[in-house]
Specification:
The complex is a heterodimer. By secondary structure, chain A is mainly alpha-helical. Chain A is about 25% helix and about 0% strand. Chain B has one helix spanning about 25-45, and strands at about 5-10, 10-15, 50-55, 60-65, 70-75, 85, 90-95, 100-105, 110-115, 125-135, 140-150, 155, 160-165, 170-175, 185, 190-195, 200-205, 210-215, 240-250, 255-265, 270-275, 280-285, 290-295, 300-305, 310-315, 325, 330-335, 340-345, 350-355, 365-370. Chain B is globular and about 80 Å long. The model of chain B is unreliable at about 10 (pLDDT under 50). The chains are: A mainly alpha, B mainly beta.
Chain lengths: ~120, ~375
């Protein structure tokens, strides 16, 4: 890919990341450039598996999850606990639940969120 | 009007009309009845609580704990109130809304949003994690996490603590904040502010810096393991004690343990107590007599603070993030994180005595009591 030249900051970061992956030694020494935008810690009760999320608590079971876990939608939406798994209110999808006062009762009124390939 | 006497009290009009009463006696009776109503009403407003609670998508509810009914629903400008901070006179409530981006000033008796305070600079988006009001009610403190919005990336900037003069509306940055702060508290010393995050930080407002840190996750000696708290849901107005469950790994046995940390808001003095094997819990509240603590998530857990141990565990139907108590300590309120209702428990027997249906989900909104004497 030497014929491609990065023009903006993001492209330069991607190129740098590709170089780091190619060189495992330099990758081990690199420092992550990620800063949490929310609370630094997750409570014991929340799911600790991020992909795709909501399956298991810190002990590998389900008793430590919110009950019922489907109805905890707004807890995660409001505070951005699981921004990869559902729309987040802190940054991207403020209007997502405007028509839905109660997630368990009115979930059919939740808006659709377009993904990148739509 | 001849032969007809009226006494107005608030919005209530008492009409006295009887041919058997002479005018003099009617007048005397009307005055006596008016005074009786006044005394009854004043004592009624003094001895029970009104709670305020945010709901989805845009609302603040006022709940009368005497009747366990909603007495007011006030529309908010922004979505999903989170921090809920009543003023010392109970006439105003300060909320964070719209993804914690704005501060709304709600006039409770007028049932309307009076002002919206925006601390964001141009090109910068903020989220507020921590809001506190000075004890005089004239200065608001907010901990913000700014994010610069560039065309192709977000840049997280250092968190900051700001103050807003509520008389002049002047906004002032106090200082850069330590990473991970989630809650702010105002102690008795007007020159101090307490920020709770990874550790507990005591801030000198004149020097605009942290002057003391109580380590919980960082800077601990090797024989102490980090303690993990979730300081989002702090209801402390009934006892003056901020209370939170903590989780840590015992450095000798390497097993996870549950504990409770209580902070006297006036003095900032912290008290840690280990309680045993972990129970998943989000938040806790201390009873007005400071003898019991109630912790919640999927269980309602009672801690005897005198004996410093768990006294009782009761399953709840659904998860609760938040818990609060009435001023007399007799009833425990659990807004459901997972449904449009608040469950009311008897504080002694832990029996579910009432379910208050709500027009929307409270989710993770704080549930705060208006100060004594406030009549919304």
């Amino acid at each position: 890919m030497k014929h491609l030249k990065p023009l903006n900051k993001k492209a330069r970061k991607i190129e740098a990341a590709a170089h780091q992956q190619a060189d495992s030694g330099s990758r081990a020494e690199s420092k992550p450039d990620v800063r949490a935008l929310q609370a630094p810690q997750l409570p014991l009760g929340c799911a600790l598996i991020f992909d795709p999320g909501w399956e298991a608590d810190s002990s590998g079971q389900m008793t430590g999850l919110c009950q019922p876990m489907e109805a905890d939608l707004y807890g995660c939406y409001d505070e951005c606990w699981w921004p990869a798994q559902l729309p987040d209110q802190l940054t991207s999808f403020l209007e997502w639940s405007d028509k839905c006062a109660s997630a368990a009762r009115d979930w059919r009124k939740l808006d659709l969120v377009p993904t990148d390939n739509q | 009007m001849k032969g007809r006497w009226t006494v107005m009290f608030g919005t209530t009009r008492v009409i006295l009309r009887s041919p058997l009463l002479r005018p003099g006696r009617r007048a005397q009776l009307a005055i006596a009845l008016g005074l009786l109503l006044l005394a009854t009403s004043l004592s009624w407003s003094q001895d029970h609580d009104y709670f305020v609670l945010g709901i989805h998508p845009t609302g603040l509810l006022v709940i009368d704990t005497n009747r366990d009914e909603i007495v007011a629903q006030i529309p908010t400008k922004g979505r999903s109130p989170k921090e809920v901070i009543p003023s010392p006179d109970g006439k105003h409530v300060f909320l964070t809304t719209d993804g914690r981006a704005k501060i709304e000033v709600v006039n409770v008796p007028d049932r309307k949003v009076e002002d919206v305070i925006d601390l964001a600079q141009p090109g910068v988006k903020i989220n507020i994690f921590g809001l506190a009001l000075s004890r005089k009610g004239d200065r608001l403190f907010a901990h913000i996490r700014p994010v610069k919005e560039l065309p192709d990336e977000y840049v997280a900037m250092p968190p900051e603590i700001w103050s807003v003069d509520l008389n002049t509306h002047a906004k002032k940055k106090i200082m850069d904040a330590p990473d991970g702060v989630v809650s702010l508290f105002v102690p008795a010393d007007p020159n101090r502010l307490i920020a709770w995050g990874r550790d507990v930080y005591f801030i000198d407002l004149a020097q605009r810096r942290v002057v003391e840190t109580v380590p919980m996750r960082t800077g601990l000696p090797p024989d102490q393991s980090p303690m993990d708290t979730l300081p989002f849901f702090s209801q402390y107005e009934q006892s003056g004690i901020v209370s939170m469950p903590y989780f840590a790994t015992n450095p000798l046995t390497h097993k996870l343990v549950l504990g409770l940390v209580n902070m006297d808001v006036d003095t900032g003095k912290l008290d840690f107590m280990e309680l045993g094997p972990p129970i998943p819990l989000y938040s806790s509240v201390v009873s007005p007599d400071r003898k019991r603590a109630y912790m919640v998530m999927n269980q309602l857990v009672v801690v005897d603070l005198t004996q410093r141990k768990i006294a009782e565990v009761r399953d709840t139907e659904r998860t609760a993030y938040v818990v609060n108590l009435t001023r007399d300590g007799k009833k425990v309120y659990l807004p459901s994180s997972a449904g449009p209702f608040v469950d009311v428990y008897d504080a002694q027997s832990l029996k579910l005595i009432r379910r208050i249906e709500l027009p929307g989900d409270p989710s993770s909104s704080q549930l705060r009591a208006l100060p004594p004497g406030a009549v919304p």
